[in-house]
Each structure stands twice: as C-alpha cells, then as structure tokens.
Design goal:
CATH superfamily: YbaK/aminoacyl-tRNA synthetase-associated domain
Largest sheet: 5 strands, mixed
Strand order of the largest sheet: 4-2-3-5-8
Enzyme class: lyase
CATH topology: YbaK protein
Oligomer: single chain
Organism: Ligilactobacillus ruminis DPC 6832
Strand content: 25-35%
InterPro entries: Prolyl-tRNA_editing_YbaK/EbsC (IPR004369), YbaK/aa-tRNA-synt-asso_dom_sf (IPR036754), YbaK/aa-tRNA-synth-assoc-dom (IPR007214)
Number of helices: 6
GO molecular function: aminoacyl-tRNA deacylase activity; lyase activity
Mean pLDDT: 88
Low-confidence stretches: 1-7
Protein name: Cys-tRNA(Pro)/Cys-tRNA(Cys) deacylase
Helix content: 25-40%
Distance between the termini: 60 Å
Amino acid sequence: MAKKKSTKEKKTNDERILDQHHIEYEEVSFDWINNGADALTEAKEQGVPAESILKTIVMQANNDAKDYIVVCLSLIHEIDLKLVAHELGKKQVHLADNKNLINITGYVHGANTPIGINIRKGFPVYFDERIKNFDDISVSAGKVGRSVRLKRDDLVSLVSGKYIKVSEN
C-alpha cells in the first residue's frame, strides 16, 4: 500500500533551529501578494495585531562589506536610517543591496529572517523597541509567505537581540 503524502509542508531550516532550541512556535502563512495588504487583512481576521508582525531589514554600516546588521520592526512602520545609525553609534547605515541579498544572508528578498541570519551568519540583530508591547510576534520562517509566531522573549534571547529606537513615529 502506498503511503499518503503529508499535506503539511516540510519544515524550514529556521523552524528546525527553533526545534533544536526547544522554542515553541506556531507555523503561520500570509498572502504577501498585493504588497502585504491581504496579509494584514488575514492577520486582522485571525486576531493578530499588525504591529506584532515583523519585517526583517538587512543593512550595511559605514560602507563596510563586513559590517552587516539586521533590524526587525513592525510591518506597518518605516525605518529611519539616520536614527538607526545614531542608535548604533555608526557613521551611516544603508539598506543592503537587494540583488546581492541571497549572497549576503542566504535568503531571497521577502524570506529574510533574524533566526537564520544570526545563527548562520552571526549578524547582530536589533529590534524596534515598540515590539516590547507584544508577548507574541511573527517573523519570517525563511520562506516567502511562511512565518512563525513565537514568544518575543524567546526570539530576542535566541539571537542575542537588543532593542533600539528605529523611527520617530
């Protein structure tokens, strides 16, 4: 008799990392077509505050090819690069080159995650201080459209993250 194929997708590397560290999480999928508008609607319908869904921004500091940093902030907020540079004591920071992102992080644009980037690449991770308002947050699971929802403190601890101010509004 043939085995039934599982309807559940294979775990991502990031989910395996969470499993190895005995961190509880929930697999979440969001529809990121239409610039995330559908994802925000889905989140609202599920009772998930949009502010607790994080995007992962990869930046380069001081034009140094070896000085990359990761900043996680709410999907609905913008980042102030000058403020981030000031908060980190850097002369300047700018967004990493999207065309080269997979070579820098190992992830395609839209799949970057603080979990894998920190564990595999060692890049420091900073979180918008406003996420302290949420016990549970969602971050990419390393695949476009796939996220994990977990305890904020578990994630911050796993990646040795620090809180900073990333924008004035």
